[in-house]
Amino acid sequence: MISIEQLSKVYQTKDRKIIGVDDVTMSVEQGEIFGIVGYSGAGKSSLLRCMNILERPTSGKVVLDGTDLLSLSPKELRTARQSIGMIFQGFHLAMSKTVLENVAFALKASKVGRVERRRRALELLDLVGLSDKADQYPAQLSGGQKQRVSIARSLANDPKVLLCDEATSALDPNTTQSILKLLKKINRELGLTIVLITHEMEVVKEICDRCAVMEEGRIVEEGETYHMFAHPQNDLTKRFIQTVLDFNLPKELLEKSKGTIVHMKFTGELAGESIVSDLLKNYEVSGNILHGKVDYIQNKALGTFVIELTGEDAEVQRAIEHVRQKVEVEVLPHDGSVHHSVAGAE
Ligand SMILES: Nc1ncnc2c1ncn2[C@@H]1O[C@H](COP(=O)(O)OP(=O)(O)OP(=O)(O)O)[C@@H](O)[C@H]1O
Questions:
Q1: Taking 80 as the threshold, does the pLDDT of residue 339 lie above it?
Q2: What is the dihedral of CA 322, 323, 327, 333, to 10 degrees?
Q3: Model confidence at 23: pLDDT above 80
Q4: Closest C-alpha to ligand 1, atom 31
Q5: Which of 9, 25, 26, 82 could staple 157 via S-S, CB 3.0–4.6 A?
Q6: Of the residues 7, 18, 203, 219, which should be mutated to test ligand 1's pocket, given the most ligand atoms within 8 Å of the CB?
Q7: Does residue 43 line the site of ligand 1, with CB under 6 A?
Q8: Ligand 1: does its nearest atom lie under 6 Å from the Cβ of 272?
Q9: In this structure, which topology does domain 248-344 adopt according to CATH?
Q10: Comma-separated ranges of CATH 3.30.70.260 domains in the chain
Q11: Are 335 and 295 in contact (CB under 8 A)?
Q12: Is 319 in contact with 308 (CB distance < 8 Å)?
């Protein structure tokens, strides 16, 4: 659907060159939701803006549905851009126009008549759940409602792909959830391909089929979202994932503990409880569960258990080795520092 080939974007300021995007090659498939995550300055916006040539790449290619966008004339590019919708953190609505006019205005460039524009705009407002706000002005709306208007507007020309530039970053957690649900709905119902950039791994966890992690203009890791959460490779990816899957055990509890504290990670179909009960039945150790949580990513379970094992040292080690055959295991230190570089079975 979109393929980016060896794309670089270098900004020339008065006294130096700044590399925004550094030799990125990636592709987004038809119908998927693809997330690009990274800290501020990683190059996410630059990359996203290169996808619709809002920013002209310094080198490389952007191919949309077989068309090399950089080879188009300005007029051809304007037409091609109609198949790429975009929404922004700051909504970018026309404040002097009503909600309906904001959406209908996007159809101005098409050859559709006024009545048809109004009909289509109302239909889109219905899709985003804002039919009752058609005659209000953006200033009368909440942030979430403004983002719904901008989503409706972005869909006016039946785009093939929607680019989302930190679309939920200005919203509270509940509103973020409702906007993410809406994006998922239009992805599933309209088959719309979505590329989003975010600094929140939670957003990736909620809706992305695949994702990429960016740092200093480069993609440092890319893959299917569940796999990325279950088996992160890069340190930066691990840090992002911790922001979602982290657990905090009280320092005092760890310091006081006389046993061995074991962190286990369960992926896919493995049921954590049965492995734990198996362990307690077959080894002369006792266990005290300190933490247990199952996250669902792309409808697949990813479980975390922390258990304190006590017993003879050698028996505890045997028990740990046994579990290590089945799941990822890490023994946590007692000083309260929790590491997440879990090693063990795949
Ligand atoms: N117009 C510009 N002129 C000069 N440098 C720029 C320009 N736009 C971006 N940069 C630089 O390119 C690098 C990548 O910026 P970019 O905005 O793409 O990152 P980002 O990951 O989207 O960060 P943020 O989330 O803060 O927007 C940064 O070093 C930034 O300062």
A1: no
A2: -120
A3: yes
A4: 41
A5: 82
A6: 18
A7: yes
A8: no
A9: Alpha-Beta Plaits (3.30.70)
A10: 248-344
A11: no
A12: no
pLDDT at 345: 41
Q: Is the CB of 49 under 6 A from ligand 1?
A: no
Q: Which of 44, 47, 89 has most ligand 1 atoms within 8 Å of CB, for mutation?
A: 44
Q: What is the CATH number of domain 2-243?
A: 3.40.50.300
Residue 337 Cβ inside 6 Å of ligand 1? The answer reads no
Determine the pLDDT at residue 344.
Answer: 40
Nearest residue (CA) to ligand 1, atom 16: 43
Residue 254: what residue type? L
Reported as a single tens digit per residue, the pLDDT across 193-239 is: 999 999 999 999 999 999 999 999 999 999 999 999 988 999 999 99
Residue closest to 243 by CA, chosen among 295, 167, 298, 308: 295
SS (H, E, C) 134-164: CCCCHHHCCHHHHHHHHHHHHCCCCCCEEEE
> What are the residue ranges of CATH 3.40.50.300 in the chain?
2-243
**204: Cα within 13 Å, side-chain hemisphere:** 28
As for the ipTM of the complex, it is 0.96
Pick from 11, 37, 199 the residue to mutate for probing ligand 1's pocket: most ligand atoms within 8 Å of its CB: 11
18 pocket-lining for ligand 1 (C-beta < 6 Å): yes
